[in-house]
């Protein structure tokens, strides 16, 4: 079942009952070339219920509603879904009344949303949120995505951003740290038992994927039109599939494909030594998950028939061995192991997260 956090959806006039117009204000826009004036009605910010960021209407059109799962208060972690939407809409009653059945029958357009999953750390055998974030940072092996830390110690998260035209992204973070921020104080004060909510989120890793491009939404959710009913009734494993794509099908070693792509791109001008230096031995070791045999296979692929010369080094005039990438690689492995970084277990944690996203959906 698809769970949503932030959702921007149209609310047709037919689904709207009472509108408390005293809580709204009017604005207008004038087209300087044609002189055409367009009027808008919008609810005042201080009148909006908890979890609602905007309710706005273009004159003669539909209302545009932007809300988050925070409208569910203590049930926030359940997310907006086919079972909770009616409760979320009921909380709009201080501004306007929406009939959920008529709304679903009309099946209005959806403009953007986030799909969310809350995965218990216990399912991943991960002692801390940081362990999961570190694993994801290492596991982002698809060259079309960039990973960077997000939120520092306040949120303990990671953003994995696509470089494609549809700039969508996946975020994983510690939700309880986000809830502790000042901006969420009014929300927690509105909850009946905020301590229980924070305690529950502290035991989970939050995974979100942002969706704003209609073409990719259709593909990810396997739907024909981006409408409210189709989105909420989708059975697609959206976050699972997205993470699977980011990690190249859960296989963390995309290294050999990257080398072959570089060789094909540069053709006769490919310089193995230059490529190796640019990547850095530390990066090579990390991508090989600290496995000396995998590092050796990469060296064979880079240098071809002369790989042994670079791997084992050469004998100098005094009969001593010089150079040797094997020695450098082993040094890096020893250094990383001595720092007890979560590299050896990163594959297990990431693969468990992929499986957990399939199970919790």
In percent terms, what proportion of residues is strand? Answer: 15-25%
Termini gap: 5 Å
User: Tell me about the biggest sheet?
Assistant: 10 strands, antiparallel
Estimate the global geometry from the Cα principal axes.
Answer: elongated
Q: List the uncertain runs.
A: 340-344
Helix percentage? 40-55%
- In spatial order, strands of the major sheet run 3-4-5-6-1-8-12-11-10-9
Q: Could you report the average pLDDT, rounded to the nearest whole number?
A: 86
Number of distinct beta strands: 14
Specify Rg, calculated over alpha carbons. Answer: 26 Å
Instruction: State the helix count.
Output: 18
| Class by SSE composition | alpha+beta
Write structural notes for this entry.
This protein is α+β, with helices and mostly antiparallel strands. Among the domains are: 1-108, no CATH class; 255-343, no CATH class. It is built from 18 helices and 14 strands. A ten-stranded antiparallel β-sheet has the order 3-4-5-6-1-8-12-11-10-9. Helix 11 packs antiparallel against helix 18 and helix 15 (292-303) packs antiparallel against helix 17. It is elongated, with a radius of gyration of 26 Å. The termini are close together. 30% of the residues are buried. The model is unreliable at 340-344 (pLDDT under 50).
List keywords for this structure.
361 residues
Topology overview:
Layout: E1 4-11, E2 16-19, E3 24-30, E4 37-43, E5 52-58, E6 63-67, H1 85-90, E7 96-98, H2 100-106, E8 110-120, H3 121-124, H4 129-139, E9 145-150, H5 152-155, E10 157-162, E11 169-173, H6 175-179, H7 185-190, H8 194-201, E12 204-211, H9 214-221, H10 228-232, H11 238-246, H12 255-266, H13 272-279, H14 281-287, H15 292-303, H16 307-312, E13 314-315, E14 321-322, H17 325-338, H18 343-360
Antiparallel strand pairs: 1-6, 1-8, 2-7, 3-4, 4-5, 5-6, 8-12, 9-10, 10-11, 11-12, 13-14
Helix pairs in contact: 4-18, 11-18, 14-17, 15-17
